[in-house]
Amino acid sequence: MRVLVGMSGGVDSTAACLMLKEQGHEVLGLTIRNNDIGLADSSGCDEPAYVSDARVLAGKLGMEHHVADERERFERDVAAPFVRSWLDGMTPNPCIECNPRFKFRVLTEWAGRLGCDMIATGHYAGIVCHDGSYYVSRGADGLKDQSYFLWKLPQSVLSHTLFPLGGMTKGQVRALVGESGIDIPSRESMEICFIEDDYRSYLRRRMPDIDSTIGPGKFVDSEGHVIGTHDGYPFYTIGQRKGLRVAFGEPRYVIRTNPARNTVMLGLPEQLNADSMLVGNLSFTGMEPDTVPQGDMEVMIRYHGRPVPCHIGNAVEGGRFLVHFHETVQAVTPGQYAVFYRGDRVIGGAEIVSQRGINQYL
Hints:
By secondary structure, the protein is α/β, with parallel strands linked by helices. Helices cover 24% and strands 29% of the residues. The chain is built from 8 helices and 17 strands. The strands form 4 sheets. A 6-stranded antiparallel β-barrel has the order 12-15-14-13-16-17. Strands 3-2-1-4-7 form a 5-stranded parallel beta sheet, sandwiched between helices. A hairpin with a 2-residue loop joins strand 16 (337-342) and strand 17. Helix 1 (11-22) crosses helix 6 (170-180) and helix 3 (71-87) runs antiparallel to helix 4 (94-113). The termini are far apart.
């Protein structure tokens, strides 16, 4: 087949190219320029290091290579919504939205333009077909498994996508590339590709006046008593312990933020415990909107979180659903995603919404 691979200039996408070529496919590379991080890596360079690195690697592999300059679309579809979510008091996960709305959409568009049969990436995940539907499945490397980030990919994409690294560990991938004799740039990968340091610094760069427009606020306890001051609610997330700069006799954690009042509630770790959560925009593979599969399943409420057995109750007000955990979990965080599994298959997902008022449904 003729396969278009998303190339980042790193070891994983390079290994994907090597594997596909060894399988006899005609492999092309596409690097999506979504930001200019790394632009100053080399003097006089007019493109980021990850773009030039990918071009060099494609040349070593004897591959046709293309660059898609999608900085404007990335700003509109990924970066700007990320900032808005923080200002709304959420803790967003931009990678989950980026995959269907941006990365795989661009790859699919270019695959059509270049006459490719399939697209491929270096994700540590698999794709299985079950009862006529395509599902993302867990990767073989439990520490690197990225199925959580891919749950929103539609059938039209999954049916034309390959994840060559799904059955490999990171160690095996590094060994494969090492045996090929190809040198990979030793750049450190970032948790969020468009943030070089941390999200707080990023918000300040994006909004230089954020400290004056939002300004300091109050730390409060669960009874509303003021117990300190903070830098502004967007700089805190549920479950955070470090960086509070308030001394207590025992550890305190962020329990909740209130954008309307610019307050941050602190409490004890047990106040983060939950046996249920509210989710919105629930979607399951092969099922109509607002319908859910019967029976038990597992849910992950954050990347690298521990899968927890659960079941989903009936719809409640506002089209939300109540998810019941079969054991206690900690730090249910609005803005993150609940991803549901049966065995190794991702069967669906939903947005975690505010826990306010949840007791009326229990």
